[in-house]
Amino acid sequence: MKFFLNKQVLKRLVLNKLAKFSALILLPVALLVGCGGEDKDAAMVQQVVALQSSDECHLCGMIITNYPGPKGQLYSRGINGNMRFCSTRDMFAFIVDPENQHNIQQAYVHDMAVTPWDHPDEETYIDAKLAFYVIGHGKKGAMGPTLASFSKQADADAFAAAEGGKVYTFEEVTLDLLVSMNSLRTHATE
């Protein structure tokens, strides 16, 4: 017995198969595109928050606005909201902790080239991952030595020439470097 399909039935079968195949291909792509949108939306929401006089450091619990020097703020996966730090040193101590380092989404620090050391202006935050840091200078932060942060390497170089210390990028700041800050400061100010 011969089985004949007319053109209309054959066309319907082919289109049905193509639709199923397309759905299998396009669904994962759509899901991936949707996931990417969440990161973009999160980045838009992850902005600097003005510090209040009662805000406490996420790491040490000290009142942030009571101390001089650059401050830090960041967002991390798994933690709702913005984390605020009384110094760039405390922020980096959180960042370089192996449990935290891969979860950092966005971080901000003050640009000390455009704001006074004793009371950094809330309008001068910059992307911490793009900043330059001077370690080993003589200026005090919340708990002693801290990282002076700058948006431009030329400003960081000028600060290091005037105050002592060495310039580092975000990626160059390690736990060993943070631990050695007290001895670096001593050598820079001798």
Distance between the amino and carboxyl termini: 102 Å
Give the overall pLDDT as a whole number. Answer: 83
Q: What is the N-to-C succession of helices and strands?
A: HEEHEEEEEEHEHH
Please state roughly what percent of the residues sit in beta strands, choosing from under 5%, 5-15%, 15-25%, 25-35%, 35-45% or over 45%.
15-25%
| Gyration radius, rounded | 26 Å
What do these coordinates show?
- This protein is an alpha+beta fold.
- It is 37% helix and 17% strand.
- The chain has 5 helices and 9 strands.
- The strands form 3 sheets. A 4-stranded antiparallel beta sheet has the order 2-1-3-4, covered by helices on one side. It has a 3-stranded antiparallel beta sheet with strand order 8-5-9.
What's the quick description here?
It contains five helices and nine strands, in the order H-E-E-H-E-E-E-E-E-E-H-E-H-H. It is of the alpha+beta class and 190 residues long.
